[in-house]
Amino acid sequence: MRDEINFALKDALKAQDKRRLSTLRMVSAAVKDRDIAARGEGKEQATDAEILATLTKMVKQREESRKVYADAGRDELAAQEAEEVEIISEFLPKQLSDAEMEKAVDEAIAATGAGSIKDMGKVMGELKGKYAGQMDFAKAGATVKAKLG
User: Where are its TM segments located (predicted)?
Assistant: First the structure.
């Protein structure tokens, strides 16, 4: 994943695509920050799963900012945030649709043998292990809660 980001950064530099270049530099800096944090924990560098979590967080932050800008009538800034989301999302796995997420929740409930809301942690752990970066876990949590509650 790290190499993909670096290749995309070089391509954006060659193409002189300023928006893409600045976004990819931001992504690269976030990955390096994550590597530094990993070294503090005694690891060599961040794993792909940790990078994926960082990218997912970046997308979520930008989507929230886009909404705030749109609500405030700052369309040019909202469009900039949307472009950044699109660029960062290129490095994330395909997101599950609502139907696919529901099926995954049903499978996780069956796999963990969950029978009540007390088992929600087990189910969410199962989902996070299998579908990291592929679903919105806030949405998944609400679905799990509805099915178990």
Answer: none
pTM: 0.72
Q: How far is CA 11 from CA 3, 26, 51, 85, in A?
A: 12, 15, 21, 18
Structure tokens belonging to residue 119: 């088992």
What residue spans of the chain are helical by DSSP H? Answer: 2-15, 18-40, 48-71, 75-89, 98-112, 120-131, 137-148
* Tokens standing for residue 96: 């599950």
Check whether residue 84 and residue 54 sit in a common domain. Answer: yes
Q: Verify that 17 and 40 share a domain, yes or no.
A: yes
- Domain with residue 25: its CATH number is 1.10.1510.10
Say yes or no: 40 and 75 in one domain: yes
> What integer pLDDT is reported at residue 76 of this predicted model?
95
Whole-angstrom distance, CA of residue 134 vs CA of residue 128:
9
